[in-house]
Amino acid sequence: MMAPTPTLERLPTVIQAPMAGAQNHRLAAAVCEAGGLGSLPAAMLSLDELHQQLQALQQATQRPYNVNFFCHTPPTPNAPAQAAWQSTLAPYYQAMGVERASGGAARVPFSHAAADVLQAFRPAVVSFHFGLPAPDLLARVKGWGAWVLSSATTVAEALWLQAQGADVIIAQGLEAGGHRGMFLSEDLNTQMGTFALLPQIVQAVRLPVIAAGGIATPSAVVAAQALGAAAVQIGTAYLCSHEASTSALHRAALQSSAAQHTALTNLFTGRPARGIVNRVMRELGPMHPAAPAFPLATADMAPLRAAAEAQGSSDFTPLWAGQNAASCRSAAAADITRDFLQAWRVA
Amino acid sequence: MMAPTPTLERLPTVIQAPMAGAQNHRLAAAVCEAGGLGSLPAAMLSLDELHQQLQALQQATQRPYNVNFFCHTPPTPNAPAQAAWQSTLAPYYQAMGVERASGGAARVPFSHAAADVLQAFRPAVVSFHFGLPAPDLLARVKGWGAWVLSSATTVAEALWLQAQGADVIIAQGLEAGGHRGMFLSEDLNTQMGTFALLPQIVQAVRLPVIAAGGIATPSAVVAAQALGAAAVQIGTAYLCSHEASTSALHRAALQSSAAQHTALTNLFTGRPARGIVNRVMRELGPMHPAAPAFPLATADMAPLRAAAEAQGSSDFTPLWAGQNAASCRSAAAADITRDFLQAWRVA
Question: pTM of the predicted model, to two decimals?
Fold first, then answer.
């Protein structure tokens, strides 16, 4: 059993948002070493991979880090719904000469098996998306002294998280890239911009609140602080960092004018997530009624994605990005982190 | 002919957003007298009413003020489209025993006839929504030295407005209440939160940029300034002021928990506008494909609205509000204005 990571005494003011599929321990470690809180996204890792990543992260930094899990309820597979989705995608399969195949990274919720792996490392911070895990699982995480963070996209979600035992609330504004953390409602009209969401959550809860969504430049850190944030969580601004594992296609899209136009889409996983508008989003519409429950949309999109990517095309690739991708810099994560840390005004 | 209002030497840092249907010259004058820039919404005024309002405003304040116009292209009436809309609303007519009748305030774009009225008053600022008027009309306004403001909801719109001769750009974030100013695209996915939109427009244009959308507390003024705003435009925070003409039903909704849930809806006018979710928005869905082109949805909704309001119900009333209505104060507009002005940090 390895030495526990240090307990967190105070929340770092800059948190690197976990970005499954675009980063691993390398980015997290670089951010930690620069004085921010690096995050390891675990949603798409097997238990073995989780163990390997944690080991690598712990070797790379002795500073506190965050491990992020999804905590959705896995859906019961629904054959007619899946067939409807397959027939929606069928014209693409036909046109591209692609064979149906199972594929796509699984997204498994936090579990006792994952907690077993995690417990050996006792990470100082564990964050969740889509609510919180069941009370017994949450108690295990809190048992080793970890701070528990989770995303709220409405005031009601923030109050729910506070009541269920979260230590810190992440106010995830509509601008944020990747999956919306929404879990009490499926109505996208409940989703607010950071200017509206952040101060309302700050006023409603007694916990520290982290601002997320649209925070991409040092001046946005100042703005978030003015609105009452105790820290900022930044994702998109790290996507083109040297240490991110963002694919070349994804990086190219982020640094093109295409990045000006993002949308919430359920085409890639079944849950609304923000990404750069690409061909399949344009042609099917970003929110499609036939997309099956999260994460069951992924498997049937995966063969199209693989075939297109093999030809250098991101037509079927989820190009997760926030609404402020213009400021994505190809730079060392440490430099990006320091710029944000310096913007934070010490009272 | 009356004395011209004083020319604007510098943009006031706090601008009261024009809110047709919820205010007249009284609110505008109170804001001007407190040191902000008051706005008179002219979109729903006849030429006679415009003249009367301008006269009253000029009698109430000697300070610079803003007059706001819509500048949409009026649609060609389309009988089948209107019939489809009528049949969508028919069950409500039947259930409520309402007779079909023409009604609802017209929304007429800026015209030479309006410019004739305006010219006698030479307002220091004229702002537009939905783009800019035709070049000859714009030239008339600029001819008497008025500053021309217009709303941009995307970077492309900001660049268009700059190229066409606007003097100042209003960056209207997704949080804003009332009509989206969007005019180059009808795709709601192009709309961004203020945290993302404001800095991108500030970076893209050489003109001063006014932040709008979600700015409801003094701390939001500080945040907007950090993101590069030259001024802030504030609407919702004035809706419950003593000088607003906001209806009692609208005020009650703003000060209830219902105000936590707004949505963009085309049900009331045909164009997307943000208001508090009420019965008709919930039942038909806030964006309905059968709603005819702006402003032709209004006339058929008006009798339902009148019948419901007569019974004390806002089920069919447009309850325009931004995403940050929680901080609506029942206070004097001068006090609200001074709080915002004091938050502005002088460099």
Answer: 0.95
